[in-house]
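Handoff note, outgoing to incoming analyst
You'll be picking up this chain. Sequence as last confirmed:
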Amino acid sequence: MEETLAVRKLDRLGVVLVAGGIVATALLPFIYVKANRIAAGKPMLLTQLLPQPSVVILMVLLVATALATLFLRNAFIRLGLGTLCLAALIAAIGLAATAATPSGSTVARMTPGGSFWVLLGVIGLIISDALVKIKLTPWMRVASLVAYTALLAICLSSGLLDSLSILREFSTRADQFWTEAVSHLLLALGSLAIAIILGLPLGILCFWVPKLRAIVLRTLSLIQTIPSLALFGLLMLPLGYLAANVPLAADIGIRGIGTAPALIALVLYSLLPIVANTVVGLEGVDPSVRDAAAGMGLTRRQILTGIDLPLAFPVILTGIRIVLVQAIGMVTIAALIGGGGFGIFIFQGLGQTAMDLVLLGAVPTVFFAFSSAVILDAVIESIQGPAA
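Most recent structure output, in case you need it:
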């Protein structure tokens, strides 16, 4: 009976996370030592690296964090230990990579193994759980994102991680990386801006004309069912014909491949969340408020701009959040038709069996999507207020 009560006192999430961390540490390699970028490499367990001081510190912090996660309910202690453990994990992988790299070698690659990624996920969940339990305000969550981003930036600028293969890939492609980063963000933000310009009036029209609403929403839902590559392919033929027969179209960059079909496809995919959320937001406005405004002599346009849209804005912004996160992810597919973006590194890496090159494109894509979600969630919650 006492044993049962003791088990019940354990944090359930903590049990799952700690068990996952233990299994990963014991069975999965912490780092792969490769002779070159495509070699299989020699797997090294975390326990095999124990003579290194950074790994010893990491192990001590992992044990302390595991105990705190299992037995302590104080979110601040769990957050502090989790943050220290995260910093120690990053330092350990960097120092282990540096120690394993042959002196003067430019072709050797040190790749983080499964144990590193599992521990990174486990520690991230522990930190996230602690932040949720502390009940931070929306903008304090954004501040936390900035703080952890600054921690990562310090590690990157210090040269601690320079021996890691993903940083080696970055160093040889730095100019291209920043060019593709700009292209990625321009495509995502540009498609979002166009979708807002088109979708917001369309959503208002659908709200005012219920018969039109069903047709528009069904059509946009149908577009959502078309796979992205298929939609790119469908757009290539008409855009190629347009570029070949209309000189002005070719002059402004409209072609069968490249940015034009990628941008159009992203806009088409983005319309449904914006239109649907605009309709839902406007329908959520209390009709009595609208009637009172009409009774005061306000025109339909004044009611829309002064009452309907401000009250519906949090719901509309939720749709914009969905679109932005979706667009950041989908731009990677646009690389297949010459649209640019981080997808270039992902598909080059897949073609060359170079997973570090894949990570060079995937990691910043995930970071941008996650950061956008956190920031827009904070904006939405701030507008809705604590009562929401």
